[in-house]
Amino acid sequence: MVRNMVILGAPGSGKGTQAKKLQKEFGWIHISTGDILRVEIEKESHLGVKVKQYVHQGRLVPDEIIIELIKQRLRGDNADSGFILDGFPRNVVQAEKLDKILNNLKIKLDTVLLIDVNKEEIIKRVSKRFICENCGPVIVDNPDADKCPKCRNKIYRREDDNPETVKHRFKVFEKETRSLINYYKGRKLFKCVNGNGSIDEVFERVKTVL
Ligand code: AMP
Question: Where in the sequence numbering do the catalytic residues fall?
């Protein structure tokens, strides 16, 4: 079963985690615009320098930059074995553009999946979210911890995971992504799962609706 899908959810909803699990189990390629931008920022590439301020302040990067990036990713052979778009589209303009790009490439979008998590849970999760140099994203109960609970390697917070920026990112999500959900809601491809609960519980729900 090949799937071309979009995964939607607030920051901290677990969409990236679920996308990674889908990639592992089904081989669909995970395309995360946030991850791509963070790598570019780290490399201090031309694109990285352009987008750094937006990402670190939790503001959306201008549509034309993001759309160009997605166009390039989808043009490669990525789409042949199925893909999961994570973090794109973020607003209605990007969704309309995605429809056009896919149309031109003669690719069908099968599913738009919303991971729905309440705001209190989001704030709680993001405050525990750290990045381990070795394991990637990890959940850590002690906010002052500096070592990974799994491998004891150094951990750090994402630059945009501080409480003020998270609040702003949530506001941006509410404003932009709510209308995006309405854009897809009327279509048969739209699916929604309850994203509260453990990673595995949510993953079972995701597989059930796909
Ligand atoms: P994420 O990892 O998906 O939470 O994205 C982190 C940050 O990257 C966002 O707060 C934005 O600054 C930027 N970003 C990621 N995807 C997009 C997008 N589709 N449109 C605009 N900005 C984006």
Answer: 15, 90, 129, 158, 169
